[in-house]
Write a structure and sequence with these properties.
This protein is of the alpha+beta class. It has one domain. The protein contains two helices and two strands.
Amino acid sequence: MIAPAGEQFRALDLKEMASIMACPVIVDLRNIYAPDEVMRNGFLYSGIGRPQSVAY
Protein backbone atom coordinates (compact mmCIF):
# COMPACT_ATOMS: atom_id res chain seq x y z
CA MET A 1 0.00 0.00 0.00
CA ILE A 2 1.26 3.45 -0.89
CA ALA A 3 -0.99 6.32 0.19
CA PRO A 4 -0.81 10.10 0.55
CA ALA A 5 -0.14 11.55 4.00
CA GLY A 6 -3.71 12.82 4.54
CA GLU A 7 -5.35 12.49 7.93
CA GLN A 8 -7.75 9.80 6.68
CA PHE A 9 -4.79 7.45 6.20
CA ARG A 10 -3.63 7.80 9.82
CA ALA A 11 -6.79 6.12 11.14
CA LEU A 12 -6.88 2.99 8.96
CA ASP A 13 -7.98 -0.36 10.36
CA LEU A 14 -4.61 -2.00 9.74
CA LYS A 15 -5.62 -5.44 10.98
CA GLU A 16 -8.58 -5.59 8.58
CA MET A 17 -6.53 -4.23 5.68
CA ALA A 18 -3.80 -6.84 6.24
CA SER A 19 -6.40 -9.61 6.28
CA ILE A 20 -7.76 -8.72 2.84
CA MET A 21 -4.48 -7.91 1.08
CA ALA A 22 -2.66 -10.62 -0.89
CA CYS A 23 0.71 -9.18 0.17
CA PRO A 24 0.34 -6.81 3.15
CA VAL A 25 3.21 -4.34 2.71
CA ILE A 26 3.39 -0.69 3.70
CA VAL A 27 6.07 1.59 2.28
CA ASP A 28 5.72 4.66 4.49
CA LEU A 29 7.17 7.56 2.51
CA ARG A 30 6.11 10.14 5.12
CA ASN A 31 6.73 8.11 8.30
CA ILE A 32 3.16 8.62 9.49
CA TYR A 33 2.86 5.11 10.99
CA ALA A 34 4.55 3.59 14.03
CA PRO A 35 6.56 0.64 12.66
CA ASP A 36 5.81 -1.60 15.67
CA GLU A 37 2.06 -1.05 15.37
CA VAL A 38 2.05 -1.70 11.63
CA MET A 39 4.06 -4.91 11.98
CA ARG A 40 1.96 -6.05 14.96
CA ASN A 41 -1.06 -5.85 12.65
CA GLY A 42 0.45 -8.18 10.06
CA PHE A 43 2.25 -5.92 7.59
CA LEU A 44 5.75 -5.87 6.24
CA TYR A 45 6.93 -2.30 6.85
CA SER A 46 9.53 -0.01 5.35
CA GLY A 47 9.86 3.65 6.31
CA ILE A 48 12.04 6.15 4.49
CA GLY A 49 15.05 7.13 6.58
CA ARG A 50 14.32 4.55 9.27
CA PRO A 51 16.31 1.41 9.96
CA GLN A 52 15.04 -1.47 7.89
CA SER A 53 12.08 -2.73 9.95
CA VAL A 54 10.45 -5.57 8.13
CA ALA A 55 8.62 -8.31 9.95
CA TYR A 56 5.70 -10.49 9.15
